[in-house]
Amino acid sequence: MERRNFLRNIFGGTIILWVGGIFYFLLSYLSYARKGKEVFPRVKIPSREISPSKPALIKVGEEHVWLIENEGEIFSAISAVCTHKRCILEWDRESKRFICPCHKGIFDKEGNPIFGPPSKPLKRFNVFKKGDEIIVSD
Amino acid sequence: MSPIKKIIKWLEERINLTEIFSFFSAFGLYYGEIDTKDSIEEALKKASIKELPPYGKWPHVLGILTFLLFVFQIITGMLLAFYYQPTLLSAYESTREIIRDISFGWLIFNIHRWGADLLIIILIFRIARFFYHQVWEKPRELFWIIGIAILIVSMGSFLTGKLLPFDQNSYWSTVRNLEIIEKIPLIASIFNFLVGGFLIEEGTIIRFYFLHIVVFPLLLWILFYLHFSTVRRVGLSALELKKEEKITFYPSHLFSLLTATFIIIFILVTLSVFFSFRLMGKADPLKTPSGTGPSWFMLFLIPVIEYIPWGLGGFLVLLLLILLFLFPFFGERIFRSKTLTKVLTFFFVFLYLILSFWGFRIK
Predict the structure, then answer these.
(1) In angstroms, rounded to a whole number, what is the distance separating the alpha carbons of residues B344 and B337?
(2) Reported CATH class of domain B55-234+245-291
(3) Selected residue of A23, A26, A29 to mutate for chain B interface (largest B Cβ count, 10 A)
(4) A33 touches chain B (CB under 8 A)
(5) Which CATH architecture has domain A42-137?
(6) B293/B173 Cα distance (integer angstroms)
(7) Rounded to an integer, what distance in angstroms lies between the CA atom of residue B153 and that of residue B157?
């Protein structure tokens, strides 16, 4: 390799390292998530706040979740975020279905898509009752 | 034709690139007139072979260093503004988040703080050098006046930025700074008008923040632009240099510019790593920590204001400030001898240091 080429490569390499380093540290600075995420988010709800006729929209970690009581104190916690365009679903008590207000997608009470644009099922959360409290966790 | 040239040609048919280049060159990238009718390639070629006066290199780079530091302040300040929240409740917490939790946040915060210190130091040096080399004589009056204005506005920017982390040190330091400002007649009224009082509360933080990120930087951009235009019109000081020394923009001037940039980055990063600032706990108006005083460049005002009776110290400071601004218009009659000016420069710098040290002892 000629000396001139060698020097040029060294110079170019240094510049690339500099620019790359600056970009690396800018990106890592800017990519900071605002609030520290919980590893296993869990939420406690008093059981008197919920009944078969009154479901609750709660927040588990960063997700909105419908907490529903079925007959016989069987609870289910299902993500309230539509898998199509991330609208917040509404719970229809008569038909026991989730209805999306944006594009009229419909999910059954297990969270499976049965009508409209959404094709993926809703995320299900763990839920159990302990004393007077219902605990929902991811 | 290479792809870059194709893109440039495509752009050139739709927008006047030379005009944009001439705008950027207004900030010291290049000295000399640019014909906006030329294509960008021709303009760059003309600019690169343009002969510059011999002073366009080390050690006469304090001006461009100031501007570089100012640009670094803008960049790091913008990055800090992504996470900082200017409210009484979360100013301290968000600063702590930047320093403690966000990757490289401590580095950006420290570069911003050290950059501010360096900027003021270099500006003071610059004014001393102007005085030493008599860079206020006709036709450079405006050059001097704008230089002083840049120093004053930078100090304002420093002082407003000082409060923003809202830890004990910044709070009490600001309290002491305001005590001094309150005693200087006209400045106090201007401050009162801008911020609305000398108490530090919610409104103060927001107004300081607004002054710090919008008003003062905008003023500085304008002042720098005017400063560079005066340089273009009257040239820099007439220094005693050998006549045959001539340099061109490319490569010598560009090379010294890049060297200066790298040296500044090096100094800032080194200072930030080895002498990083620490937060002193959230500001508490009921607990004064020991050892906090005004910002370092305000120290020399303390003896002047405290030891001259009947509040005349403040008037003296105001008078000095006005004289400093108007200096080019009467300086020529008083400072005829060059040797006297040079001796006086050292005397003034010495006086400044002595007063600062005195202020540091009684702060």
Answers:
(1) 11
(2) mainly alpha
(3) A29
(4) no
(5) 3-layer Sandwich (2.102)
(6) 5
(7) 6
Whether ipTM > 0.90 holds is: no
Return the closest-CA partner of residue B232 out of B13, B22, B14, B10. Answer: B22
Residue B88 contacts residue B148 (beta carbons within 8 Å): no
Testing the interface with B: which of A24, A27, A32, A35 to mutate, by most B Cβ within 10 A? A32
Of B129-133, B247-251, B277-281, minimum mean pLDDT range: B247-251
Distances in Å between the alpha carbon of A104 and those of A18, A57, A121, B8, B129? Answer: 52, 19, 15, 50, 74
Cα A30 from chain centroid (whole Å): 21
How far does the CA of residue B57 sit from the closest CA of chain A (Å)?
A: 23
- 3-class DSSP state of B266: helix
- Rounded distance between C-alpha atoms, residue A41 and residue A28, angstroms: 25
Query: Which pLDDT tens digit goes with each residue over B76-119?
Result: 999 999 999 999 888 999 999 899 888 899 999 999 999 999 99
Cα–Cα distance measured from residue B135 to residue B147, given in angstroms and rounded to the nearest whole number: 10
- pTM for the model: 0.78
DSSP line for B62-119: HHHHHHHHHHHHHHHHHHHHTT---STTTHHHHHHHHHHTSTTHHHHHHHHHHHHHHH
Rounded distance between C-alpha atoms, residue B58 and residue B67, angstroms: 15
Amino acid at B362: I
Q: Is residue B31 scored above 70 in pLDDT?
A: no
Q: Is B269 on the interface with A (CB under 8 A)?
A: no
C-alpha distances (whole Å) from B351 to each of A67, A134, B52, B123 are 74, 74, 37, 17
Report which secondary-structure segment, H or E, holds A99: strand A97-99
Extents of the domains making up chain B: 55-234+245-291
Alpha-carbon distance values, B214 to B108, B115, B130, B208 (Å)? 19, 18, 29, 10
